[in-house]
Amino acid sequence: MRYLVSVIDDGAGLATPTEEADIDVFNDRLRAEGHWVFAGGLGSPDPATVIDNRVGEAVFTDGPFLESKEYLAGFWIIEAPDLDVALKLAAEGSKRCNRKVEVRPFLS
Amino acid sequence: MTVIDVREAITQAHRDEWARVVAAMTRRFGDLDIAEEAAAEAFATAVGRWPADGVPHNPGAWLTTTANRKAIDRIRRENKRGGKQKEARMLYDDDPPDSLGAIDDERLRLIFTCCHPALAMETRVALTLRMVGGLTVPEIARAFLVRETAMGQRITRAKAKIKAARIPYQVPSAEDLPARVSGVLAVLFLVFNEGYLATGPDTDPVRHDLTAEAIRLTRLIRALMPEDGEVAGLLALMLLTEARRIARVSASGELVPLGEQDRGTWDAALVAEGHRLVRERLAAGMAPGRYQILAASTPCTPPPVTYATPTGRRSLPSTTSSSVSTPRRSSPSTGPSRSPSLTARRWHWPPSTVSRTRWPCITPTMRPAPTC
Question: What are phi and psi of B268, to 5 degrees?
Answer without folding.
Answer: -65, -35
